[in-house]
Amino acid sequence: MKIIVMSDSHGDVETVKTVSTLPADAIFHCGDSELSLDDPLLHNIHVVRGNCDRDGRFPDSLLVQVGDKRIFVVHGHEHDCKRSMLPLYYEALEQQADIVLFGHSHLYGAEMKEGILFVNPGSTLLPRGGNEPSFVEIEWDHEVEDLAYEGISNDVNTLENEKKLRVTIKNLQLETIHSVEMKNYTRKR
After folding, report:
1. Which of 11, 62, 110, 179 could form a disulfide with 168 if both were Cys (CB 3.0 to 4.6 A apart)?
2. pLDDT per position in the chain (189 positions), as tens?
3. E strands of the chain, at which residues?
């Protein structure tokens, strides 16, 4: 499975158009698009309201199931994410989220806490901290390896499931800025 995450595009329709056409199972925008809910660019994107969005019809948060993952999406301003991740962490526990997507700070980053992945894609228009404009791809799968042990007949092979999750932060030229892969990660419920 693969999802694409962007945030804080602040009216930059060209970037939203480019990022939203990339292949993915789901696309998310963590707020401050400054577009209308009716904008055709957003029709196939899960979008939440940011503090700069004038259209009050956007939801404050979303909980979306993608494959075997529960994805919780907020902008972050109502969870004070610039000061502490604790309010967002508690909300993630209440929502039983596997992945939390948020923006607001315009700083990209990814952090795993007790099996919950927290991802901020940064800003596609106004990045902070000396970063370049960015978005994120998150991929996960269940890769199966065929393990044949010596002394065991060929018809009695052992299969092992290895769970993988990869977070890739990309610039608008689609080049990788940072990437991290986790193996055998599981969410404790």
Report:
1. 179
2. 999 999 999 999 999 999 999 999 999 999 999 999 999 999 999 999 999 999 999 999 999 999 999 999 999 988 777 778 889 999 999 999 999 999 999 999 999 998 899 999 999 999 999 999 999 999 998 543 433 434 444 444 434 456 789 999 999 999 999 999 987 666 666
3. 2-6, 26-29, 46-47, 61-66, 69-74, 99-101, 108-113, 116-121, 134-147, 158-171, 176-183
Signed CA dihedral, 150, 155, 156, 157: sign only: positive
DSSP secondary-structure letter at 132? Answer: P
The third-level CATH classification (topology) of the domain covering 2-183 is: Purple Acid Phosphatase; chain A, domain 2 (3.60.21)
Q: Are 41 and 13 in contact (CB under 8 A)?
A: yes
Residue 29, phi then psi, degrees to nearest 5: -125, 120
Contact 27, 19 (CB under 8 A): yes
Query: Global pTM?
Result: 0.87
